[in-house]
Structure to design on (223 residues):
């Protein structure tokens, strides 16, 4: 089930701007994942984080695993039109096969 | 490399009709398999997951069922569809013991 608070719910951004979104939880997670979903397609994994404090980049994307293990953020630098989509965070607790998902952040880019 | 397939891509079914959605994974053995439903503009709801052949765990009570007849095949079924079953159904897999889940392309189901 969805136990993660993801914000903002949606955002309109200007091309070239940096974007930041985050997820918080009242529970501790051992893994944080960030996915992007485009209309009519399945979510695609962007970044996986496995260690508290870990900062990982994937091109213009940067994500961090919070020190408390209860939060994570995703940054997109110099946004471009193809960054449009819904971004989901997901977390997994130790020994659990299941992921908890955030409700998603819808990103719309103005050219 | 691993790939995950789902079919059909789109399905329109009348209320009360049966349902069978199929998901298959290639390039890995003994994956954990998952079925999710996504309502329009909403997040992902886990329906079922399986850690092995014939092993199914249900997350929410509903008129859907799942089966895993083969290691890399996961099927979502219903005997009688309801209007509320409409949505986008996603299958996902993960390597046993690892957390990262990889999603299939999805099946869009419209029940009329």
């Amino acid at each position: 089930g969805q136990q993660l608070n993801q914000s903002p719910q949606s955002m309109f951004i200007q091309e070239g701007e940096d974007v930041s979104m985050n997820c918080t939880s009242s529970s501790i997670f051992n893994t944080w994942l960030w996915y992007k979903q485009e209309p009519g397609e399945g979510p695609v994994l962007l970044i996986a984080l496995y260690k508290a404090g870990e900062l990982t980049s994937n091109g213009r994307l940067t994500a961090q695993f919070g020190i408390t293990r209860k939060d994570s953020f995703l940054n997109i630098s110099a946004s471009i039109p193809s960054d449009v989509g819904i971004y989901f965070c997901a977390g997994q607790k130790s020994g659990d096969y299941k992921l908890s998902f955030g409700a998603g952040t819808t990103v719309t880019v103005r050219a | 490399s691993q790939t995950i397939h789902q079919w059909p891509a789109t399905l329109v079914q009348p209320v009360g009709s049966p349902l069978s959605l199929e998901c298959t994974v290639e390039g890995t053995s003994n994956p954990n398999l998952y079925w999710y439903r996504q309502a329009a503009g909403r997040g992902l709801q886990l329906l079922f997951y399986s850690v092995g052949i014939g092993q199914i765990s249900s997350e929410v009570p509903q008129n859907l069922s799942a089966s895993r007849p083969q290691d890399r095949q996961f099927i979502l079924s219903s005997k009688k569809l309801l209007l509320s079953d409409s949505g986008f159904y996603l299958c996902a897999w993960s390597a046993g013991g690892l957390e990262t889940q990889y999603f299939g392309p999805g099946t869009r189901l419209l029940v009329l």
Q: What stands out?
A: DSSP finds no helices and eleven strands in chain A.
